[in-house]
Amino acid sequence: MTLAETVLGAAFAGLIAYALFGGADFGGGIWDLLAGGTEGGHAVRDRIERSIGPVWEANHVWLIFVLVVLWTGFSRGFAASVTTLYIPLTLAAFGIIARGAAFAYRKSVEALGMRRFFGAAFALSSLLTPFFLGTVVGGVASGRVPPSIGPGDVVRSWVNPTSLLGGALAVLVCAYLAAVFLCGDARRDGEHDLAGAFRRRALAAAVVTGAVGLIGIAVLRADAPLLFEGLTGRGLPVVLVSVAAGLTAFGLLLTRRYVAARIASALAVIAILVGWAVAQYPYLLLPSLTIEQAAAGRATLLALLIALSAGAVILIPALVYLYTLFQKASIEPKSPNRARPSSRQNGHG
Amino acid sequence: MNALQLVVADGVENLLFARTQMALTLGWHIIFACFGIAFPAIVVFTEWLGHRRGEAALTGLAHTWAKAMGVLFAAGAVSGTLLSFEMGILWPRLMDRYGEVFGFPFVLEGFAFFIEAIFVGVYLFGWDRLSPRAHMLSALPMVAAGIAGAFFVVSANAWMNNPTGFRLDAQGNVVDARPWAAMFGPSTWPQFTHMWLAAFVVTGFLVASVYAVAMLRGRRDRHHRMGLLIPLTVAAVITPVQIGVGDWIANTVADNQPAKLAAMEGQYRTTAGAALSLGGIYADDELRYALEIPYGLSLLIHHDPDGVVPGLEEVPADQRPPVNVVHLAYNTMVVIGTGLLGLALWFGLAWWRRRRLPHTVWFLRAVAVSGVAAVVAMAAGWITTEVGRQPWIVYGLMRTEDAVSPADGLAWGLAAVVVVYTVLTVFTVVVLRRLARGRDTLAPQERGQAHEQGQVL
């Protein structure tokens, strides 16, 4: 593995982390959107809020991390991509702003109208943001980003069959991951009704994702032959791992083994992303800009590698501390939690 | 597509849209970034003081501030995300050519921001769950990460003012990029120090001004008095230091960016014994109607009344920054800074002699406006340094118009940004007012049950 591949691999690991953690956050918002009316959907919304409340800011730093490593280590490819794909990227950034602000501010306001407005903004942007990010991936993966600034088509680069597939799959995967993660959270806190409700959602999302994936094979074959070739050639073993992990997760959900289902689901998502990387290798931008051509000089790559290693040593224990603190704490004050939904609504109902 | 093309076709127009969008979003973000840098230290100090004196009013005050910190941090986080998109979307040629040289500190900032996000969550969530000692310890990474993040971001900006750490080959391509060296150019330390202190000045005066307004409305209990006293003390101690650092940074600019300094002063001719000019209008290579302090500029720059200060005439006409904007912004910063120094001295003198706030209502009124004034001063400072760097995005090497994206439709992006930020601003103000009124209001990082516990406090 060359130095450039190692650094790009680290950025890709950040992308995977964003897909898993940030993706589950987005998915939470999507289920919030689909939870129904204010009264009926309250239990589901409350569960989602408790699960993602303290961690969403940290989960979203992964995206910034990916961007800054790319622009430092692979400036050429980065500059070309963001110029061509600036419309979906700007829309995704707006989505992140609307989502983050609405989620944060919703807690601090009491008036039902305001809470509803923020809730709607949060939920809708949770759906749109991963969609736009998925279209970006589709644009890159189908070779629609020319390797220089200027000639790219700012509309067709993301309004095309592969991008639409990418957007749809991103939304579905987020929803699926969130449902699987929430099953476990709900059962750990003894909320068995909610665990069952999220289990049904996870199973439904899995079926739809699988179906869209099958349709996707035909779409990629017609619209992105190079990617299709890579996925069915060199990338096939990884794609099969993803399919196997996905089917295993489905079985585990059916038998209510939520912790194992989490792991299998995460594996399925990781494998499909790795499959994309393998299919595209050694190109950063299909069909002409290779990783080595796009890479920065040696001193910059080395600095990145040092910073990423040192940063990981600081960051990983901090993240583990964050997640364990919240996982532990969510069990302890059980009883006041139960009483809260009704008391809050009565407070200003 | 056709509609888009009708609105915008070429890069020159894009330059205006891109610069406006960058100025708007960056200016918005910096205010919140100040709180990310300075507020954690002020909050945890107040918490520590509360525990040490066993005073619930102080820990309660710290808790209220911690919630506000959570909201401000959320606003800063989302607005910072857009900025990291914009660096590439608006200025792709800057990133394309120089990303490998100066992109590196942003990676480090990514880690700093990550740590800060984690520990803001831990600090707020752990308020009633951790022991006081463990809780205050959990704030330390947040404090350190805020400072480190500021350093990394400012070092990238300092690089744009004084690019170092690489060579250009005959074709003008970057070779031999050394990102560590690029982080420590001549402007980095003075610019970082100035910004770091500015964060405390802005946060201190702004928080104090909220309580000054409340006290003017008759709420003079201990909660409000301490809410005014603690941040005001921080700001009053730092303001004189900040003015000293201002001298340092002016000297750095004089050494490295003479055109910027000349624009700050509205000085066309290279002059020995140059006067310091305040106000006035610059037109036809001359500053008119300005208030002049004889020998002031030479004294300021060279600490010698006869020192020679180079004027704009030394720089080709197409390489001069817009003088009026830079001069006015610089003067605004200096005048407000001097006013804030006066307020700090007033407060310091009263405290030294009588151990209490000055009794006159005018003091509270002055504190009440000091917050907004400090924000204006900081914005003016950034306008000075950013507009003063024009027409360069990388000083002396890459013109801003050559860095801007050629993509169609950037005008729509700007229009959308204006709408999104207007809405965001309105709601941020609504939520902060709500937090100021009710102590049981939840911060975004807190969890529901604190709702009940918060009322016990």
Automatic annotation (TrEMBL), chain A:
Q: Which UniProt keywords apply?
A: Cell membrane, Membrane, Transmembrane, Transmembrane helix
TM ranges are: 12-34, 86-105, 117-142, 162-182, 202-222, 234-254, 259-279, 299-326
Looking at the UniProt record for this protein, which Gene Ontology cellular component terms does it annotate, in alphabetical order?
cytochrome complex; plasma membrane
Q: What biological-process GO terms show up in the record?
A: aerobic electron transport chain
Has keyword Membrane? yes
* A Pfam entry, by short name: Cyt_bd_oxida_II
UniProt-annotated location(s): Cell membrane
Q: Which GO terms describe its molecular function?
A: electron transfer activity; oxidoreductase activity, acting on diphenols and related substances as donors, oxygen as acceptor
Name the InterPro entries on file.
Answer: Cyt-d_oxidase_su2
Q: How does it sit in the membrane?
A: Multi-pass membrane protein
Q: Hydrolase among the record's keywords? A: no
- UniProt similarity note: Belongs to the cytochrome ubiquinol oxidase subunit 2 family.
Q: What is this protein called?
A: Putative Cytochrome bd2, subunit II
From TrEMBL, chain B:
Give me the segments passing through the membrane. 26-49, 70-91, 103-125, 137-160, 195-216, 228-250, 328-350, 362-383, 410-432
Q: Its principal location? A: membrane
Q: Please give the Gene Ontology molecular function terms for this protein.
A: electron transfer activity; heme binding; metal ion binding; oxidoreductase activity, acting on diphenols and related substances as donors, oxygen as acceptor
Q: Does the keyword Lipid biosynthesis apply?
A: no
Q: What is this protein called?
A: Cytochrome d ubiquinol oxidase subunit I
Give one Pfam family. Answer: Cyt_bd_oxida_I
Q: Single Gene Ontology BP term?
A: aerobic electron transport chain
Taxonomic superkingdom:
Bacteria
- Membrane topology, as annotated: Multi-pass membrane protein
Question: Hey, which family's this protein in?
Answer: Belongs to the cytochrome ubiquinol oxidase subunit 1 family.
Tell me the compartments it is located in: Cell membrane
Keyword tags: Cell membrane, Electron transport, Heme, Iron, Membrane, Metal-binding, Oxidoreductase, Transmembrane, Transmembrane helix, Transport
Q: What cellular component GO annotations does this protein have?
A: cytochrome complex; plasma membrane
InterPro entries (alphabetical): Cyt-d_ubiquinol_oxidase_su_1
- Keyword DNA repair among UniProt keywords: no
Any idea of its EC number?
1.10.3.-
